[in-house]
Amino acid sequence: MIKAVRGTRDLLPPETALWNFVESAVRDVFRAYNFQEIRTPIFESTELFARGVGEETDIVSKEMYTWEDRGRAESDKRQSLTLRPEATAGIVRAYIEHKLGDRGLNKLYCMGPMFRRERPQKGRYRQFYQIDAEVIGPPSAGSESPARDAEVLEMLATLLDRLGITGWNLELNSVGCPSDRAKFNEALRKALEPVVGKMCADCQRRAVTNPLRVFDCKVPEDQPIIDTLPRISQFLDEPCRAHFDAVQAILTKVGVRFSLNDRLVRGLDYYTRTAFEFTHGALGAQNAILGGGRYDGLSEALGGPAAPGIGFAIGEDRLVMSLQQSASAEGVLRKPDVYVAPLGAGMNSEAARLARELRRHDLVVDLGDETFRLKKSFETATKAGAKYILIVGENEVKAGAFALKNLATGEQVSVPRAELTRRIQE
Ligand code: HAM
User: What's the predicted TM-score (pTM) here?
Assistant: First the structure.
């Protein structure tokens, strides 16, 4: 038997209703903040991620699905392509390519699958889904303002509340600007020198190439060492400090609670200043529902104009997992209101007509077949979870009234055709 590939999975009903519920709430909330949808390709040139996300990150160095694409002719240079591991680099590429800044298109979102070759576990897949949003624009449009950071974070709090997800925690940090980072890296190198020999092979490499990435380490034995290292928060220059203070002041004013986490550096190299994650206690080890931050130099690193930005990506798989534990999930998983059961030869057409009427009134209707015996119709209706079964037999059609049975209580009544909709809606 052929099975889904390791780390990939089928999203099945009824859970797909939760995915749709999430996506439509996202569209509603994002609309209120004037975000518009962009859809970028699933694969891009490898160089985009190497330059955007960073060669030394786990994502680029270990987790990408990359292949050499055949040229049109045998002699053509082969092009290295990669399934997108995240959406920000592609969106910023599109922003530059289509000069979206000139058109005032500075609030963009996209939803779709991403691919990372990580070790699969609960809440971690090789094909997973992100809902990604970015605010990006020329500095003259205020894209550097702490007001944007706070707006994005407040929007996320609103979205999670709207979805009925409680128990989330917003963790906030500032990773400073490139000059802070240079000073910090130097201090880190120094601090690592005497201890790095006791750390994992990845950390030994990071200590040389990109010491900040030591904070990505998940090896338990390394954690006590990492706890003793200096923190980026000690190296923020005055403008970065002021920016971070302003973000916190707005959040406090609008009533979005957060906690500061000076170990949070995020696993992608493009971040500057604000970095954040929303975690959820019920998720286990993979507890980040979403992550994001500011990336003031990314556009320029990709050859574009100065275009500071801030954004985030929600892990939709994890969001749906935390939703399953919330009360709002119950109302979403809608079962058929009524199962229409044609009884006897020639009754399919009459049943189809009735089903059409009921569906026009927004009822969820499932329809049987005239070859089914009554017992089979009842079994099918019960299996589908229908509230009512409506019997459409010759006698009912002649009388103009139909047997309507409540499958939960067993109560059965005869209802005239004209009253059917109202009766079921009640
Ligand atoms: P990220 O932290 O790599 O950030 O991913 C964001 C979220 O995607 C994570 O918090 C998690 O919920 C989900 N996620 C990541 N990897 C997996 C996986 N293997 N399985 C399931 N869920 C996963 C970014 O991707 C940035 N592009 C976010 C961003 C946008 N920053 C600025 N703009």
Answer: 0.92
